[in-house]
Design brief:
about 90 residues, mainly alpha, 4 helices
Amino acid sequence: MVKKKITVSIDKPVVDSAKLALLKKGKTMSDYIERTLRSLSTSSILNDICEELNLNCRYVTGEEVERQRPDLTGKVLSEMEVREMRDERSSRLS
């Protein structure tokens, strides 16, 4: 894939903060911006499909999914508890 350089103007503190956060994740600013731009076009396509099919759709980002996951560190759950959690999550996303 051919890469294209772009120029953007962003406040320095915003850039510094973003670079630090991305460095901790082992990502680059270019990777993040490209992924974000790709998700915009993907989101647009999905929204068009939902409208065409008359569906009430909502695009959920990976970050949103991570935020909504309960912290189950160190817990052992039964199949029934897992099923209840999945059903509750499914009802929120519907």
